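Handout, tutorial session.
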Amino acid sequence: MNVKDSNGNPLNAGDSVQIIKDLKVKGSSLNLKRGTIVKNIRLTSKEDEIEGKVDKNGVIVLKTCFLKKV
């Protein structure tokens, strides 16, 4: 599978990514701020989604169009 960030850089399991836009999390009052680093990502079965642990909020699925590789 070929997973890429918003700039076209390939993403692999275990990479760190940075959020490039403020995001609201569905079903929660949590807002992810621009510049937040998500470490040790996991790839999902979909090319446009990854899983990552954000702070102490648990695992969140994020779209790759809002991420850039660090």
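The second record follows below. Compare its token runs with those of the first.
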Amino acid sequence: MIDQMLNLLAVIAWFWFVLVVILLLLRGYQAGGFRSALRAFLSWRIVIALMIALALTLLSASLVFIEPQEVGVVISILSPNGYREEPLRSGLHVIVPLAERVTRYPISWQTYTMSAEPFEGSMQGNDSISARSSDGQLVFLDSSVIYRIDANEAVRVHIEWQKRYIDDFIRPVMRGIIRTEVSQFTADEINSSRRKNLEENLGELLRSAFSDNGFVLDRFLLRNIAFSDQYTNAIEMKQVAEQERMQREYQAEQIRKLAEGERDRLKIEADGRASAIEIEAAAQATAVVLKAEAEQTALNLIREALAGDQQLLVYRYIEKIAPNLRVMLLPNNNPLLLPLPDILGDETGDLELTPTPNGTQTPPAPQVTGVALPTATPTATPTPTPGQ
């Protein structure tokens, strides 16, 4: 604000000086002609106005305010080398008017972009970098650098590059280093995961080159990589073939998973059926064992009952016969199944056993005359085979 105010006051002082000179000359000329006007020009009023204007101008020129985002390089005829060794940092500084002047340089971060898009880069039109890969493919690269002038090296930048550092240093160094480094990679490597390696290598090389010339590189950005139409078409065809192969592999994998799922399902069903059959067989076996044990228990009870009373078997036999059957006819050549004569002796009298040729005795045919037969059909006892 002080610097701007002094500049404004100096301008006002010179305007006031010119106005005073004009007014005095007009009055002197009107009063006594040319000689009177010349005497008025050399009057003390004009001298005072001139001294004020010169004082304000010199004071304004001797005070320099440097903004925080810039440094100032002092060009001085009083210094042996024609410049001050140290740049002026931000703040208010005093220089020798008419003997020194200040050239300002920005020290804030700047971005320089070279792109194929007409209005995207720092220069209009296609400004991308064309380079040849190690296998001879033509590669087009869009890139950007974020950099600033090193505040301590501002005097050096002024001596070597002045305000031409973008066109004479930044741009040529980027194009040269990028082309040299791209020639170390094949087109497939540039288009693959090694693109990151290319970007890192370029960043290191540019950082070293910038540092050697008074600049600080923050970051190098490889914005885009393009190839010739022929190579691009070849890559697209390769990618399409790769995608088709992956699709076929995916379909085959899905079919394999479905087959495995179906196999597992059938195996589970078979295991389930086998388990069910095993459980059913175990249950049947248990039932058979239980039934056999029950039958064995029943037979044991029957054997114990028969051992206590032999007539129980006869009783059970008679119980099975129809309750109204009183007479039973048997062939005379078959042995009796039960000792019926002892039971039936009361009604039919004593039966005489007739020996048979095989040594067994059969009772004679009973006399059934005078015996009332029941209306029910008698049960015929089947003839047992010998040995039963």
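Points raised in discussion: The longest helix spans residues 229-308.
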